[in-house]
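User: Last request for today: this protein with nicotinamide-adenine-dinucleotide, please.
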Amino acid sequence: MSFSLQKKSDTLCFFSSFEELIPQIAGLKKKYESYLIFSDDFVFNLYGEDLADHLQTVGKPVSHILYPQGEMSKTWECATACWNQLIQSGADRSTLLIAIGGGVTSDLAGFIAGIYMRGIDFVVIPTTLLSMTDAAIGGKSGINFGGVKNLLGIIRQPRRIYLCEKFLETLPERELISGMAESVKHAVIGSEELFALLSKKGILSGEKSDLREIIIKSAEIKIGIVSRDEQEEGERALLNYGHTFGHALESATDYTKYLHGEAVSIGMSCAGYVGKKLGMVEEQFIEKQDSLCLSLGLPIKLPSFPDDETLLRLMKKDKKSISGKIRLIVPEKIGKVISIPDVPDIIILEALKEKRLKDERE
Ligand SMILES: NC(=O)c1ccc[n+]([C@@H]2O[C@H](COP(=O)([O-])OP(=O)(O)OC[C@H]3O[C@@H](n4cnc5c(N)ncnc54)[C@H](O)[C@@H]3O)[C@@H](O)[C@H]2O)c1
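Assistant: Here's the final one, the structure of the complex with nicotinamide-adenine-dinucleotide:
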């Protein structure tokens, strides 16, 4: 059965099979003349042909554009190759782009569809936990550029987000665990209840209903924040909790060492130490947050490379930093974080030093 999570704009819908999905797509208010599946090569091999076969039943032309799987495809070169393929396929404003895949797919799809012809419509079918709980929601899209994560991008909402947890059955465990990091983030930002649910023993291998609840609760938190502040003029920035450190780790290691959620997990731990230095949280908070991440199989320790100075330099390049001043989202307690516009370098360096000492002792 499908249902809608966001009553107002009806954007998030669950489905359980492609048979059930196709009438939802065909029944969208705007009538499209063609469908274009957008995916990475790996996900397309798993699900793309089946989706294309089902879409054919609508009686409109169906084509596809594929890119090589992984974060390394979030580049200007890849985006340009996709735009060229859009031109070759004859895509226009009567085309619906159907993005199926993880967060890289939704980030690329929104950027490509949002710029092409000043914007063509797209829908997203997230297939990783991370994209179901976070990346596919909220309309942020973009690519990495100039050594900075997500430097180029736009905010453009998909027409719909279609959710089905069955895709998670083929997702490698490391990717599933990585996806949990964004749910931990949502819990620390705004829900003690979600934090408790994530802390339930064996949550990853347990009941399917638990996973669905995690997806729904995480998505609700993100949808709530985005619907109040779509353009990130205030509250939306809180969703970057753990990300300023995380993005710096990802770009310092050329997007090859850490999955996004893994870098965010380490980033949240670092943010906890900054919170402690600023007198906002006690050691107990850090331990609680770190233990949850560890119990889910997420990393929390800082690597020896990049060193603290390099991390700091990269953090200053982050989009959130203004005139070299680092804006950080810092915890107050489980369920509440705040934005600090100008965290002094010395506080960050001292926090990282304390964290490294603690990492060594563990
Ligand atoms: N726009 C946003 O608001 C937002 C929020 C959080 C993260 N992100 C972005 O999301 C990206 C990370 O997303 P991700 O972790 O989903 O990465 P991803 O899209 O690269 O997917 C991870 C890997 O899993 C494979 N895969 C996907 N679905 C599968 C399935 N069902 N079965 C088997 N394999 C599958 C993919 O081919 C890929 O190799 C990062 O680039 C991050 O910046 C964006």
